[in-house]
Amino acid sequence: MKKVKFRHSAARVLVLSISLFLSINTLILAQEETSPTDSQEEDVQETVQGPEESNVESDVSGDAAAGKALFNSLCAACHKLDGNSIGPPLRGVAERRDIAWLQSWIKNSQALISSGDEQAVEIYNEYGQVAMPPFPQLDDTDIENILAYTSEPKAVPESKQAGSDGAAAPGAGGISTDIVLGILAFVLLMLLVILYLVNKTLRRFATASGVPLPAKKVTRKPIYRSFIENQFLVLVTAVALLLVSGYMMYGYFMQVGIDQGYQPVQPIHFSHKIHAGDNQVECKFCHSSARVSKHSGIPSLNVCMNCHKSIGEVAEETGTDEYSKDFYDKEIQKLYTAVGWDPAAQAYTGETEPVKWIRIHNLPDFAYFNHSQHVEVGGIACQTCHGPVEEMEIMYQNAPLTMGWCINCHRETNVMAEGNEYYEKVHEELSQKYGVENLTVAQMGGNECMKCHY
Amino acid sequence: MKSLFTKSLLFLLALTAVSCFDDSRPNYQYMPDMYEPIPYEAYGEYDVFVNGQEAKLPAEGSVPRGWKPYEYENTQEGYQAAKEELTNPLPYTEENLATGRQLYTIYCAVCHGDEGDGQGILVQREKILGIPSYDDAGRDITEGSVYHVMYYGLNAMGSYASQTSINDRWLIDHYVMKLKNDLQEGEERAFDEVDPSEDAGNQTMENLVPAVNAEGDQVPEDQPVTRGSQENQNQGQQDQNEN
Questions:
Q1: Smallest Cα–Cα separation from A447: which of A415, A399, A409, A401?
Q2: What is the per-residue pLDDT across A275-305, written as a single tens digit (0 to 9) for each?
Q3: pLDDT grade, residue A247 (50/70/90)?
Q4: What is the pLDDT of residues A163-221, one digit of tens each?
Q5: Is B48 inside a domain boundary?
């Protein structure tokens, strides 16, 4: 018997030592894992620098940097460097066309077309007879600068590759720290188990070999007995338990029907943080009907396309660890599929499919709420009810939307009566009646049942 | 050991309670009959509609109240004609300009910039490029051309007809022309005198809403009503909402 137990514990000690050894080992390995990524990043930086240096060579004389500024402010509305937009792609246009011809085209394309120039008429017809506005403000050097910019060789693939590598490297680092943490947790757990087992076996070993263990004192009355015998204590505990469970029940029943924090997964991952936060697009730009209607409308997709015709992919720096650039680009592709937009042909295909957005803020049918009344007349900021939408990567319901919440705001908010003739008389009379300077919504009747329930 | 066991049991219970709380589903309701509407909700999904889509386009040829046909076509000629002929029907008043400024800030400033110099936040962040300044000599915008472009869009700029009313667009138009004037450092345009005895709001609407039964006389037969061929198509992709 003795020997068996001894062998048993020895096996456990072995397991312990192996796991210890492994845990130390993985830590060392993890350190090694991180170091190559550092060197990779350095490599990546070198490759980025490479093509940039080679960019400088160009046949067209002119300042490419000045040309870039001009290009971005004047041409980029309709021309991309690579790829069709409203007009043709402009990279290398100086090689395709005669410089003098380009000069006269840019200064006044319509004059060139009406003069019957063959090339001009051809390109005009090829791009759907969209007239390019004249640029009389550009002189010859300006145009040369622009052409110098467009003649720069394409550096996009390299930098893109480097970018994706660069994005992958910290991601890999993130995963490895996760793994390390997981391993650490596992090792800790193992240690706990082993400690417990070792303790148990040692005790058994001790009893078997006749070593006296410190005996437990059993003379004291167990605590639950003394508790049961003390009737007052039992009563108090019972009452306390009842109260606590009653309170918790109350809490549970009060939250039924309240959707605060509701955060469904939408068919297209639309980030309010990027649109309303980083890019500061006004709420009412898209939800324009909040100004004039009961509903703050969901924008139809033509509103999306007003910008996303030009923005087919997100910038490199928009991607985060959580949501990569690829992820966002796919979401824009979803929009294109839904609206039936062919980015290559720059035209609508006519095949559309509705986007089934999921409604988040939903008042019960027996309560009436009007957006325009609050947004336009009341001048309430959208964030008052909807919370910090400009920081929400995924939209959620910020307010409880309960009646108590509505009423509370009506009690606290003053009516904007300044410069509003409509309120002048009633404001004067009522503020005299209540003896206040500024009337709250409630004092103007904002808490009457029939205002919202009818 | 026993206490550890009970503690871990409690911890597990708490964990299940937390994991059962699901953010992505709406909560239970006491009496859904009282909460869920019987009539069709805006953006709802109902079998009675094509594709189940409640958000629909108005029937073809229907005319919303207060709407006035826009008589210029979405072509190069239409643009030129609007640029030369069309003028703003709203009086140039301080109030109109202030409202125009608000609307401009919502819809235009994000690209065109608060000053109209084409340096909006999206341009500064290089999201959208090539926004011209309002004093661009080649474009030489006028009241008519500004309205025409807001209505139909031009090149990379889309139509804003679905987000703004006729009145809104003319208010924005006033403010855009003011910005252009400021950029060119021209003289401030004097505000129009509006007879205070007349309600200013009514007067502005009168310019835009044709008198009852007068509409037929105003639209010549040979000029097709071109309103929003683009606008309507695009609204066909109206999104849908379900509960």
A1: A409
A2: 998 888 889 999 988 988 888 888 888 889 8
A3: very high
A4: 444 444 444 445 678 899 999 999 999 999 999 999 999 988 888 888 777 766 667 77
A5: no
Q: How far apart are CA B45 and CA B48, in angstroms?
A: 9
Exposed / middle / buried, residue A27 (Cβ in 10 Å: 0-12, 13-18, 19+): middle
The answer to whether B156 contacts A256, with C-beta atoms less than 8 Å apart, is no
Tell whether A74 is within 8 A of chain B (Cβ): yes
**Best of A68, A73, A196 to mutate (most B CBs within 10 Å, chain B):** A73
Position B186 in a domain? yes
Q: What is the pLDDT of residue A193?
A: 96
Contacts of B26 in chain A (CB under 8 A): 259, 262, 264, 362
Domains: count for chain B: 1
**How many other β-carbons are positioned within 10 Å of the β-carbon of residue A141?**
13
Give contacts of B34 with chain A, Cβ < 8 Å. 364-366
CB contact under 8 A, B105 and A282: yes
Residue B120 resides in a domain: yes
* Chosen from B94, B127, B230 to mutate, greatest number of chain A CBs within 10 A: B127
Which CATH number does the domain housing residue B99 bear? 1.10.760.10
Residue B177 placed within a domain: yes
- Chain centroid, CA A396 distance in Å: 12
Set of chain A residues whose Cβ sits within 8 Å of the Cβ of B118: 73
Q: Which domain holds residue B123?
A: 89-192
